[in-house]
User: Which sequence fits this backbone?
C-alpha cells in the first residue's frame, strides 16, 4: 500500500513495479540508528529512492523519498490515519512547518538523516501514540 501511495505521489510507477527488490536495513540496534542508516542509504542513491519505516504489529508507517540530488521528504498518507491520528498529525506537522495535502501530510526534512529519523520517531510517538521503545523496521528500495 505504501509503495502505491509513493508511486501516485511521485510518479515512480516504473521504479516501484519494474522488478525492483526491497531489502531490509539491519543494525544499528536502536530504532533511531536503523532509521538513520536507511535514510542515509536513500540520500546516497543517484535515482529517486524511498524508505518505509513501519511498526509491523500495527501496520503504522511513515515513508521518505529522496536521492543524492533531492532532500528527504517525509510523507504520511491519509489512508494510514484514523480521524484521531489525523488531528494529531495536523498539530505535529503544523508545528514542524509541514504541509497538509489531499493525500496526507508532507515535510521536507533536508539532508540530515539523523534529524529526519528523530522526526519519524515523533510521528510514531505523537501521532500513533506508540511507546518510545517500540520495535520499528526500516526498508529501503533497491
Assistant:
Amino acid at each position: 500500500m505504501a509503495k502505491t501511495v509513493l508511486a501516485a505521489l511521485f510518479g515512480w510507477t516504473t521504479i516501484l513495479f519494474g522488478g525492483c527488490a526491497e531489502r531490509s536495513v539491519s543494525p544499528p540496534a536502536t530504532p533511531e540508528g536503523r532509521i538513520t542508516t536507511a535514510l542515509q542509504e536513500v540520500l546516497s542513491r543517484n535515482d529517486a529512492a524511498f524508505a518505509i519505516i513501519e511498526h509491523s504489529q500495527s501496520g503504522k508507517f511513515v515513508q521518505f523519498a529522496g536521492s543524492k540530488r533531492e532532500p528527504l521528504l517525509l510523507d504520511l498518507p491519509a489512508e494510514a490515519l484514523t480521524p484521531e491520528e489525523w488531528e494529531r498529525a495536523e498539530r505535529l506537522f503544523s508545528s514542524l512547518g509541514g504541509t497538509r495535502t489531499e493525500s496526507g501530510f508532507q515535510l521536507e526534512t533536508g539532508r540530515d538523516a539523523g534529524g529526519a529519523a528523530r522526526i519519524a520517531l515523533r510521528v510514531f510517538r505523537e501521532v500513533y501514540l506508540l511507546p518510545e521503545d517500540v520495535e520499528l523496521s526500516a526498508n529501503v528500495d533497491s
Notes: The radius of gyration is 14 Å. The longest helix spans residues 113-127. Residues 15 and 61 are 20 Å apart (CA to CA).
